[in-house]
């Protein structure tokens, strides 16, 4: 059975660069007051400095009330009478019909001309009513829920239609998006309200400019309700992530230069992209200032994130933001201390160390003999089921697979089953985790030769003994710290905490024991199922890791990846390069059947040396970047902290 995963394309929109390196931009002297306090020369100096640093794209923001400065005049009983610009009637022209300020539109046109003059491109976020902790709406809509109020939505559509029509042919613009984190502009009661708002704005963009891609611009998407990955994917061409650890569940646990944090952006982007089946851009990323990490450690974080996003088929890296805003006195900078020191340049225009990493990585990409990295090889499908914390489970599963030595793609349990030789169904929870029809399809794949891994949280599964080879005897609430799982197959016999809510006492009927609790109760088993195998783990190890600070580099949990290594042993036979160190990630990028580009990434803040095993009939032909040497079927590499290496292997 072929995995079917090697040929999946990134599906990047036409004329979209293979990997963006850039920043989110507000003028260095003004922040969000850039358009009301327009200084052409200062903006031009900013753009010149950003272009000289090697950035190729900016994400820019026409602030909504500056560009559509509508007020509403009221008559008797407070009933609305007329929309105006302050006291001035709307002009009888296209500006008045769209409620758009001619003055700020002219400023934006000059801004685009300067971007093009500096040979950069921009992504234009359109309805920018939310920015850095403050709501910005035209006075006419003050107090309205602008995501659901029909009057507010009508004027948003008029603005978008005019603005996109006006600038659709400008060479500086590479893409549009509805706006910055528009899901923060108001509340919704149903998923349908989010869908309808997004549909109204994206369709207005497409009618005015059918050629350029439309990005989502949203963050904090979910699978089942509210603002969903699936709906944003249906309505836009590219999804986006804004992976700030303090604002994302399970991410603000560890130092920023360690494996959990440096893989946050990549794991979240892959989660969005795989569920939505659309490419994904890391369009905002940052560390939220010096209280989180020193400038030099931020550089390590940036370097690692660049390598990981690029190697895992994410469309780019845009830093938040270009300039520090610590000298600004207006809100939101007066309110939000976390918004003041996020730039790659300080207020005096001196650069921070992280900028060197962006510049160096861009130069490295230009030096490579290939224009774009082919999509990576993926061996496994991770099924995210009902009634679970989808993001927490996906995040840990992604890291564990990296540590074990293979790559995964995500899908929802309600999506058609994708083809693979290894299926992961982690942390099954509740009474409706996987439907009968989906489980039946999954077991047919196993009968035909695939491998299935299941880990249990609170789920009550039917046909359990037939699937796992274990007979449940009794179920009880587990006392905290009650037991450990001993992994018998490994010489060191590592132990993993048994941190589940429930303990089930099992009798093995067909299963082979790979690990048991301290009292011998089966905990990790393998059973033949047709021509395939089923691995079962009785504890939700993925959520245990997600909720435990330091779990991925602590003595108590550092061997957890061995579970994935054991379950994935068959699929890893298809790997050309095999490793052992869990902090080293390997991605393989096929170039036809007989050539692969290999990317190694050190996900730890200390140097790493490794001896890799090269599969028979393969040899290293070219080292593109970093230190790697070949000796028969072994490769030796030494990687600096949070850094990568690239080389090519060919079948001989």
Please characterize this protein's 3D structure.
Strand 25 and strand 26 form a beta hairpin. It is globular and about 85 Å long. The longest helix is centred in the N-terminal third of the chain and has 18 residues. The chain contains 16 helices and 31 strands. By secondary structure, the protein is an alpha/beta fold. The N terminus is likely disordered. Helix 1 runs parallel beside helix 4, helix 5 packs parallel to helix 6 and helix 10 packs parallel to helix 11. It folds into 3 domains: 293 residues, TIM Barrel, CATH 3.20.20.80; 194 residues, Class I glutamine amidotransferase (GATase) domain (Rossmann fold), CATH 3.40.50; 76 residues, Sandwich (Immunoglobulin-like). It has a 9-stranded mixed β-sheet with strand order 14-13-15-16-23-22-21-18-19. It has a 7-stranded parallel β-sheet with strand order 9-6-2-1-12-11-10. The chain has a 4-stranded antiparallel β-sheet with strand order 24-27-30-29, with no helix packed on it.
